[in-house]
Amino acid sequence: MTKDALTRIAEALERLAPAPQPAPDFNAADAFAWHTDPDRLEPVAKVARVDLSLLVGVNRSRDTLLENTRHFARGLPANNALLWGARGMGKSSLVKAVHAAVRAEGLPLKIVELAREDLPSVQRLLALLRRAGDRFILFCDDLSFSHDDQHYKSLKAVLDGGIEGRPENVLLYATSNRRHLMPRDMIENERSSAINPSEAVEEKVSLSDRFGLWLGFHPCSQDDYLDMIRGYCAAHGVSVAEDRLRAEAIEWQATRGARSGRVAWQFFCDLAAREGIRL
């Protein structure tokens, strides 16, 4: 066999079974993003987030999640959390803001973002985190499952942990527009067509029951919507007459057909641009 042939065989074997990646440097950042092919934790130098004080209308959820996160960072018992409800009401923003607030208090805590499509690799990620000396919030944003989606089985590895149990230094925070992580019409369809309706969807519906904390987010009132915008203006030094601010903000949300924290931020970005303010 020629040297070139041996080289090609060696390269093919390397592609099939690549060498293990070096251990991640957890001192490189306070936030990481998990990627696969190959498996790696990439440091995030600057997290896109807003200050906790700018999240309006979610006081109960804010206080509950903040206290739970403090407990975890101090090595005390804490619960996995599911933040569910209306779009654009600050679910993912709250997770990132709470992480920053706890870090600012001097408590050691890191956050790792895990994409829903990478859930099948979660056991490999947990193995890396289990060996680390730090404490981690594992953050899965916009989590939901369709009727033929098997990714939910991988999520149970985080919530239940299998025979090893969930790593003591890892806690899962997930956000979803759905309280049971699956469409309501799918739940009803499976119940109506199943031989045993009470068991038809229990495996998937019970997944959300494995979260110790359920924090609901609901559409905001007009007063909360305006308070959000006022908070952004104060934080970024945008000075606008109250009558004008109110009129333009209400017109903006009317054209969008919705009120939410996301709509408030989008209006503020437009307003800041018109005022010549860089964010």
* CATH architecture label name of the largest domain: 3-Layer(aba) Sandwich
**Biggest sheet, strands in spatial order?**
2-1-4-5-6-3-7
Q: Give the end-to-end Cα distance, rounded to a whole number of Å.
A: 64 Å
- Count the DSSP helices: 11
Number of domains: 2
**Which stretches are poorly predicted, pLDDT < 50 over at least 5 residues?**
none
* CATH topology (level 3) name of the largest domain: Rossmann fold
User: So what's the CATH class of the largest domain?
Assistant: Alpha Beta
Proportion of beta-strand residues: 5-15%
Q: Indicate the structural class.
A: alpha/beta
For CATH, the homologous superfamily of the largest domain is named as P-loop containing nucleotide triphosphate hydrolases
Helix content: 40-55%
The main pleated sheet reads as: 7 strands, mixed
Cα radius of gyration in angstroms:
22 Å
Instruction: Let me know the average pLDDT.
Output: 84
Oligomer kind = single chain
The backbone outline, from C-alpha atoms, is globular
Protein name: ATP-binding protein
Domain AAA+ ATPase: 77-202
GO molecular function: ATP binding
Keywords: ATP-binding, Nucleotide-binding
Secondary-structure topology with pairs:
Layout: H1 3-16, E1 31-35, E2 40-43, H2 59-73, E3 81-85, H3 91-104, E4 110-113, H4 122-130, E5 136-140, H5 151-159, E6 170-176, H6 184-193, H7 197-200, H8 202-209, E7 213-217, H9 222-236, H10 242-256, H11 261-274
Parallel strand pairs: 1-4, 3-6, 3-7, 4-5, 5-6
Antiparallel strand pairs: 1-2
